Amino acid sequence: MRAIAPKSDGGVDEPLATAPIRIGNALYIAPRQRTYMLTNTGAGVGDHAPVIKMVVGRMKETLDGPLLRPRILPAFERFSRYRLKKRGLNVRFIETNMGRLHVFDGPGRGSLPPIVVLHGITSSAAAFGPLLAMLQGHTRRVIAPDAPGHGFSEVPRSLLDSDALLDSMTSALDQLLDEPAIVCGNSLGGAIALHYAAHRPERVRGLVLLSPAGAPWTENELKALLGIFRMESRRDATAFLNTIYHRKPWFAPLVAADIVHSVKRRAVRDLFDSATAGFGATPEQLASLAMPILFWWGRSERLLPPSNLAYFRAHLPPHAIIEEPEGIGHCPHFDSSHATTQRIVEFARSIA
Predict the structure, then answer these.
(1) pLDDT by residue (tens digit) across 205-230?
(2) Which of 74, 103, 140, 188 is 20 to 30 A removed from 127 (C-alpha atoms)?
(3) DSSP three-state, residue 138
């Protein structure tokens, strides 16, 4: 098994002129560099917007205040979907036993095999918007489904435990794929990717695991994880965001209330309430994976315990490439969508 510490890409997103940002009744103009869209007007919020940072600083005074209904993250998801549709990623729905699943699915402009992207718990495919857009330039097809009860997918028709989740996502991918694809998964999406690779190896050209779940836990480790997701206040949500990002995100107070609401959705609560320490891939399943594998575990990973990394190191097959990139936390596409895309594309080219 090879362990590689890749070089930082050192790249930055292309500057995108200016972006209007509405806060209350005021409209601000601020430069932006990244394509995160965070307001209900569909305005861009940049990494270096001093006006917005000032507003966020004032909002810190209300971290323990009452929670309002979600506004920012739903608006972000709607605007991200709008932008992806403009880029040619179509929206479709797939029928599963858990209900209709929303999927971004569209052609790319490259020659690499289709790439599937699977999100984690409480997240959505829209959260990968910049990464999906960049992948389009390299692959023949990009596919990103929303899990049951996440994003724009329907609320599950019955209890969504881990078995129901894996069955419904397997059914969706079976319907979506007409040729072997490179399957990428982050967090819980990594566990789904592992399950699909183990049960449908003929449909998986390559496997990319980004801080994946899917390793067994001790009871204390599981209890600690569930405690992190048991959020009741903006302060709890801000602490959670600080855990999953490499650096403390300046916009955390803006989205904190929405994060609290997201972990209280029925589908999310079902998954947490039914979670067991033994969930995940067995050593035999991991050892049986014959397809090329890229495994990323950022050096700033603070959500999943080190024992998970040790488990994967011990049981992934010898040909798996294991990398621990600097400056990357639990969600690589948040910390650097460019570096994450670049590494996925390099991996895809090496096996195409």
Answers:
(1) 999 999 999 999 999 999 999 999 99
(2) 140
(3) coil
Residue-wise pLDDT tens digits, 141-164: 999 999 999 999 999 999 999 999
Residue boundaries of the structural domains of the chain: 74-221+266-351
Rounded to whole angstroms, the Cα distance separating 205 from 183 reads: 8
Tokens 């959505």 sit at which residue? 124
Buried b (16+ CB within 10 A) or exposed e, 178-217: eebbbbbbbbbbbbbbbbbbbeeeebbbbbbbbbbbbbbb
Q: What is the enclosing helix (H) or strand (E) of 205?
A: strand 204-212
Tokens (6 digits) for 240: 């959670």
Tallying the residues shown for the chain, one arrives at 352
Top-level CATH class of 74-221+266-351?
alpha beta
Contact criterion met (CB below 8 Å) for 130 and 166: no
As a whole number of angstroms, the distance between CA 352 and CA 348 comes to 6
What is the amino acid identity at position 46?
G
